[in-house]
Amino acid sequence: MIVTTTPAVEGRPVREYLGIVTGEVIVGANLFRDLFASITDIVGGRSGKYEQVLQRARKEAIAEMEDEAAKLGATAVVGVDLDYEVLGQSGSMLMVSCSGTAVVV
Fold first, then answer.
1. Domain 2-104 listed as CATH 3.30.110.70
2. pLDDT score recorded for residue 30
């Protein structure tokens, strides 16, 4: 499955538009990860644990969107948009969502 943020796949004309497809993942922040991230923020550097969680959530959201597109018979998803939102009291959860147009190329 081709997944792209561009409105088309170069050299592969769209034969059929199948509709909008989405994927959403919500992950909770772990207390210990929060503690270590705070320490990292104080001493400087990147928070590897948060980056891993963000990467996993993004991959899962895209995979969910691809699955929805495959069920429609799509061979590609074009115009993909990724969004990140903090949810819950005190921002304790992160939502990663993606959407695009399922097409046959």
1. yes
2. 59
What type of residue sits at position 83?
Answer: D
pTM listed for this prediction: 0.80
Which residue type sits at 32?
A: F
**From residue 40, how far is each of 15, 44, 60, 63, 84 by CA, in Å?**
50, 6, 26, 30, 22
Strands (E), the chain: 2-3, 16-28, 76-87, 93-104
Give 92's Cβ-side CA count (13 Å radius): 7
pLDDT digit string, tens, across residues 22-63: 999 988 765 445 545 555 555 555 656 677 778 889 999 999
Give residue limits of the domains in the chain: 2-104
User: Are 13 and 104 spatial neighbours (Cβ–Cβ below 8 Å)?
Assistant: no
